[in-house]
Amino acid sequence: MAIKNRNDYLASLKKLRPNIYKFGELIEDVTTHPATKRTVESHARVYDGANDPELADIYTTTSTFTGEKILRWNSMMTSSEDLIANMNMKRLNYRRTGSCTGAVCCGWNGMNVMWAITADIDKECGTNYHERLENWIKMVEREGLAVAGALTDSKGDRSKKPSQQENLDTNIRVTEVREDGIVIRGAKVMICGTAASNEIFLLPGGVYRDDDQDFAVACAVPRDIEGLTIIEATHPSDRREYEKEAEFEVPDTGITQGFLLFDDVFVPNERVFMCKEFKYCAKVIGFFTGNYRSCIGACVAGQGDAMIGAAILLARANGLSSKTFMPKLIDMSINNQVTYGLGAGSCATGFKHSSGAFFADPLSAHTNKVMVATLPYETKRITQDIGGGIAETGCMPSYKDFTDDNYGEAIQKIFKAGNSSAETRFKAARLIEWLTLGAGVPGCMHGGGSPDGAKLLVRLLTPWEEFADHAKKLINIDEDVQDPPKPKR
What we know:
Elements: H1 6-14, E1 20-22, E2 25-26, H2 37-50, H3 56-59, E3 60-62, E4 69-71, H4 80-97, H5 106-125, H6 129-143, E5 147-150, E6 173-177, E7 181-192, E8 199-202, E9 217-222, E10 228-232, H7 238-241, H8 246-249, E11 257-268, E12 272-275, H9 281-317, H10 326-348, E13 351-352, E14 358-359, H11 362-372, H12 375-387, H13 399-402, H14 408-415, H15 422-437, H16 451-461, H17 464-474
Parallel strand pairs: 1-10, 5-8
Antiparallel strand pairs: 1-2, 3-4, 6-7, 7-11, 8-9, 9-12, 10-11, 13-14
């Protein structure tokens, strides 16, 4: 099986029906439009990696179904080594793009999660979801597709369940079950990399009960399926990307988030992997967040690596030795290794499901989410600290002014500080600005869920009484020591 390359990938996107909008404009070609070409470029570089002899072992693997060489992000993860390979690919992606590549991340996780869930549903309910999913995964492997993952619903009023919402379309739901498939409608929001995807893998966005069973749905749809409209979100450097001089202001890479509006979309049976089996949703969320929160430790470490590099470049362009800032650079490296190492540890101490799918240790994974929501922001702060005011105070001129015929030369002269050119200093400062304030932000705080939600799971998963018993045995306490009762009010 030939491994799809950059040109194959770009051609596959060009074939899709235009259904993506931004600033009120229909984007006819996501590979060339200013609003989407950078996220496409980020993903194209992943295909480049799969065809690079020096990187192929990271970006490709062997299919568990066919034994043929395939793109790693289309594979089944059946061991701790596979999960750590997921992490290593993501860390390298951030080093090579400075940003997220969501269409080779969440969908990959989603199909592995549902590989386990469909096996459980089939065993208990006599359905054939597992076979359907296997056939779909084989197609994805064969075609070498980029698959976005859609977990997050709009949710609406957080105090109410999906079925109680005034607007039921705030969550994806099944509105009709036919002999040949289902009809779905509603919204998935903040979905990463949709503009760069061929397919979208939908998962239930919460834990549901009987009265919310219509919202328990998992399926895969082509990105250009009829009835789906995608609205691209904005970020701080959006307008700058539309300028003719954008290639000097921001990197060639980036990420976008999509708001997915499903208007009575028909999904044929062969693409449906859960339909109203609500009692399995808790396990879906548990498996998905466990793997995601372990591996995102590598994502933020990879962008932290890029920030270390950018800080070194600007320090030198400012006329200073990077060794001046070594204690701070060491702190940045430690932050990166904490999230990477904790994530790798949760992968290494995970467990294998009876279906063959492998999942990270949940306690360590959710702990890592808390670190991911904390340490990268300190790394960003240090990056700005080392870079100086030129990279953080919003005082940079535009590149158009930097090269203006009348005063550009004067600006460049005052920009020159060290042995590097004025343009290099300008670009290094812009890169730090982009990595710490702009589109390079990887979604540290709420990507993969909130840190408060992770702390709740840490509370539920930590065996507090077991630890108390260990302490009792260490000092030979035989008494039953309990928390005092709550005082009466």
